[in-house]
Amino acid sequence: MLMKFLKKPYISQELAVFLAALVLVFAVRECSSENELPVYQPSYLNPALVDVSKRAVVRDHRVAEFKLINQDGDTITQNDYNNHIYVADFFFTRCPSICPIMTNNMAKLQA
After folding, report:
1. Could you tell me which residues are beta bridge partners of residue 68?
2. Which of 19, 26, 38, 99 could form a disulfide with 95 if both were Cys (CB 3.0 to 4.6 A apart)?
3. What are φ and ψ of residue 76, in 5° steps?
């Protein structure tokens, strides 16, 4: 059937080979990225939820350096997570809207 398609005058064999190679490249790329975690950039999100200074960031967004005290009284910085993947979620303990939902989602992610 492919050869019948290739014999039509409006498509050359070279074009057909190019298109087949292109499909193969995309298929291999799709298979190899299966284990990669997606990176959500600020520009992908609802602008009302993103700091004005970060709304236009379309790639290479990183969490800024931080220094926090955890529930055990220990100081935690980004250096505690060198060479590890981590998810940062900053929330207010008295936030009545999105914070409880985000906390539940983080618990699911941790599990």
Report:
1. 76
2. 99
3. -120, 135
